[in-house]
Structure formats: C-alpha cells, structure tokens
Amino acid sequence: MKNYVYDLETYPNFFCGVFNCEGKELVYEISARKNDYEKLLKFYQNDINYAIGFNNIRFDAQVMHWLCLNSKNLRLKQGSEISKEIFEFVQKLIASTNDGGFPPYAEWHFKTKQIDLFLINHYNNKNKMTSLKWIEFSIDHDKVQDLPYKFDRPVSKESQMDEIIDYCKNDVRATRKFAQECKDLIKLRISQSEQYPELNLLNKPDSSVGEQMFLHFMSETMGVDKKELKKMRTHRGSLDIRDIILPYINFKTPEFQEVLNFYNNAKSGGLKKTVKYKGINYEFGEGGIHASWDNKIFTSDSEYVTLDFDVASYYPNLAIVNDFRPEHLGASFSKVYKNIYEQRKKYPKGSAENSSYKIILNGSYGKFGDEYSFLYDPKVMLQICINGQLLLAMLAERFSMIDSCTIVQCNTDGVTINVKREKLQEIREIAIKWQKLTKLELEEVEYKKMVISNVNNYVAQYDNGKVKEKGGLYLIDSEPHKNKSQKIVRIALKKYFFEDIPIRETIENHIHSSPNAIYDYCLGKKVKWNQNFVIYKGVKEEKIQEKVIRYYITRDKATMMKKYNDGRIEAVNKGYNARLFQNYEKKKDYGIDFEYYINEAYKVTTPFDGGNPKVGKQLNLFE
Prior knowledge:
Elements lengths: L1 E10 L2 E8 L2 E8 L5 H10 L1 E6 L6 H10 L1 H4 L4 H20 L14 E4 H4 L11 H7 L19 H24 L1 H13 L10 H17 L3 H5 L23 H11 L8 E5 L2 E5 L5 E3 L3 E4 L4 E8 L2 H9 L7 H16 L6 H16 L10 H23 L5 E6 L2 E7 L3 H15 L3 E13 L2 E6 L4 E4 L16 H13 L3 H7 L13 E4 L4 E7 L2 E4 L4 E7 L4 E6 L4 E3 L5 E4 L13 H12 L18
Helix pairs in contact: 2-4, 6-7, 8-14, 9-13, 9-14, 12-13, 12-15, 13-14, 15-16, 17-18, 17-19, 18-19
C-alpha cells in the first residue's frame, strides 16, 4: 500500500477523482461516457495507505466515504445516475458546512486514513485561512488556475470534461508539491498518532496537539477522567498585579522604576505601558516586551561586538522555576510540565520526539488565557507575561549601565546588545548574576552584523555566516499562507547588506540565475467578493477571471486596475504596468521593469543612517 495525493471534482452530470503517487497519476471518472465507480472503490479501499489532500476531511473524504457506504445501491446504476447522486450529496454537504455545521462523517469513520494539509497547517483558523490557489502562488507552482466551469452547471461537451480532469490533475500536482514541503510535519503527525493512537492527532494543528497531549499526561497523573478534566477551569475576577510580581524584581533607573510602580498599582486589564530609555521606547503589554532601534545597522569588529542573549524556553521555564500553575490543576501541573521539559532535553533538536514536547510547552501559554481550554487560569498568563517582561527589562537595564553598551533590542524572550569587547567580562558577569537570581538560562550568540528597520523587521548574520530573518521586509522564505510577493527585493536586500552587492546588480542579474527565477519577481493578489481585476491595454479592457492573480511588473503598456462593486476604481502598483503570469513560460526576455523592484528595495535602505542606496553600498555605523 502506498500514499496517494488526491482531489475530486463534482458536477451535476460529471465526477472525477485524480490520485497521484510519486508522479504517477490515476484518473477515475463517473459520467454518461464512462463509469469507473467499481474500479475507484476497489482502489480506494484496498490500495491506499494514507490519502493526502487539501481540505479533504471536510470534503473529498466525505464524498469517498459516502460512495463506499452506498455501494450496494450505486453499483447497479449508470454513470450518469451516480454522478447526479454524488452531486446531490455534495450540495447537502456544502450547505451543512457553510452554515457552520459539521460534515456527516467524523474522521474516525474513514477506513482509509486521511492526511489533511489544510487542517494540520491550521488553515481553518481565521487568521491563517488559505486556499489551495494561494498555496499554488506561494510554492511557485507552474499553473495557478481556477475551476474552468461553474460547478453547479452540467458540462455538455467531452472537451469540457477533459478540461476539468486536467484542472483536477493540476490541483493534485500542486497538493503533492505542497505535501513535500510539509513532509516533516506529516512525519511528525504520523509519529505522534502512532505513539498516542487514542488521541486522534493526525490532522490536528500544533496548538491542538499540544493541548491534547497535555490533557493525556494530566489525566494519567491526576487520575481524573479526560472528560471531567476538560470541564475544569479557574475563573478570576479583577487581579491586583502587585500580588503576582516576583519579589526580587527591582530597578536602578527612574524610567524602569516608573514601570514597576505602574504595575504595582495596576489591576488586570489595560496593562500597556511605554517608557523611553536611552534613546528607544520600551513597550510593555500583554504580548510581551518590545524595544528596538529603527533603521540602524550594528556590526561586530575588532573593537565592538553585537551579542544576543536569549532565555532558553523562556515562558515554560518561567512557569517551572516559579511554580506558576493553574489553581485547579495544582501540583500535578508543575510535575507534568517540568517532566515534559526534561523529556524534551533528552532528544536532539529536530527529532520527532523533541518537536512533540516543544509543541506541548509552547502551546500551553496561550491556553492559560483561553476560556475554552482546561488549562484556563488568566492569573498564570499574567504571572508569566508581566514577570517575563520585567525580568528582561532588568537585564537590559543592567547591561545598559556598562560604559559603551547599547541596547539594540529587547524582545519577548531576549536582549541584544552592542558593546566594546573590553567590557565583555562585565557583561557576562551581569548575565551570570541574572541567571542565578532568576534560575533561568541565557544562551549567548554573536552577530557579525544586524540590520534593523523596526522591532518587527530585522535581519542578523551570525558569526558563522548564517542569517536570521524576521518580518516581511526581510524574510525570504515566508510561510505559505503569507504573501511572498516580489521576493527578489528581499534577496537583493540580503546581498546588499551582507555581501556589499549593489541592489541594481542583483535585481537585474538574478533573472538569469535559473529558469525559475521569474517567480521571484512575481506578485500575488487575492480577489475579494466585492472586487474584479482588469488589465487595460490601451482602451481595451480584459477582465481577469482567476481569484488568485499572479503577475509581475513589466515594461509592457498594460495597466492593472481593481474595480469595486460600488463603482470605485483603484490602480494596482500605481505608475507601473503588469503582465499576468498564471502559467509558467520560459522566455529569454520577460520584459521585466527592473526599476520598480529597485525602488521597492530603496524604500527599505534609504532611511538607514549612513546608507547610500544609489550606489548600493552601505557604510558601517562605526566608521
């Protein structure tokens, strides 16, 4: 038995299913011209180990399970009758799920095991909601294509049926390509499912996996049935923040003493505070501390060094060493939590076991504030968040009191500094004292260079040459649900800052680096329900039919416009022209307007002190 990636298409008089294993495609059709119903069922029930799809738990697997359940009746009918009944079932399925209901068959009903890339990546979450079409754009699939015909209308021509099959094949190839990108996650879920089969983890996102595994361990430790444990919560009224602040937290400077005084007089809710200290704003809030220079470059050389101090597993360890725990779970929580952390350390980073324990540890913090979780106790979330911020502020303050030490950033779980090398012993003594006081561990790394646009967008090169990227301005390989448009700009910025290669040189030459380099110049747009996109070539208007548009900026005379249903019209990439690139084409000259991408990079580089984007070479802050 093998793993197959699959997808189904249903019309009132036509059904097809495409299954792909290692590039080999199998096509099953049910229509007036062909009836592969029995072949499909035999294959589906006997030859598949894992059926891999995109949103298949709520659609494709539902259809296949219905086909299997009704085989006694359906195998006696003609292909045209079966396709009609499939379509009628699908309409009921869509109606029930669109109304917020559940599909008729739970995952445990399926005899053929399913892996749903939509679910395990948490794309059903409203903040990450993503379509397969957008995934096709994100993974540089060679064809970004919408359904060629409306699904609720019969297809009358055989050529249309063939076109739908080709469309389905394209979707399956894209899903297979995406599955390759998710292979580590898939392996992890299979490993977790085999280790804990009763937890049904196979198609859960990380957050749910962490909670389910924690629930399992807590149930075993407490001797309480999971159903009863799920009902447990600790609800709180208003909390005096002074009662949750660790007694040893103190500050030397008026600015941070003001922060501590603020929290000592605060109650839960509305806990944001900002102070300016030695040139940068320190923002305290429920999401952690944030402080950073804007548009600065810090480098390490013979005189100065840029060091990053990260707290190892900060939030989990903060809870462990201070015995922060949900009141209703008592000492059992602390015992289980600490054991999970100790177990994780036994396995190498990147292993399935290490990843499983990491998911549990990292996922728990958010659950302390989730009233739908058995971990719910908002006091614990506040204990971790408030104390976590104040302890990092303490570390930053103490570092800053060393002559020549500049705080570069102070963010969530670490502090980055730039300091004279002759002061390193004093810096490390402070770090040691902080660790002894807090019983937490600091991990120190050196950056050769750190380029900061703002607190959310920076890039740093480690002493070994590797580069850490953060935020949309610099992150070259973003998550598939995010927008990776004009990747070439981020490639050029990286070469500009760390290899002294002029931006223009990279942007004009990169297109020749590989046959697929054109994708790095592409942009993506999602068409919303109240919009239409059109291309104007002179006075001629061409409506774009696709719901996900892939294009690049060109020297062609073709303007892309966005039209709203209320009559408003907006230019897309105003002042520039666009060429659609839904289907990959290999060309000697794509007609790219390089000036657009160069100007986009200049928007990032221009604000830097000492930057000179016109010649593409930046200056060292310390020169």
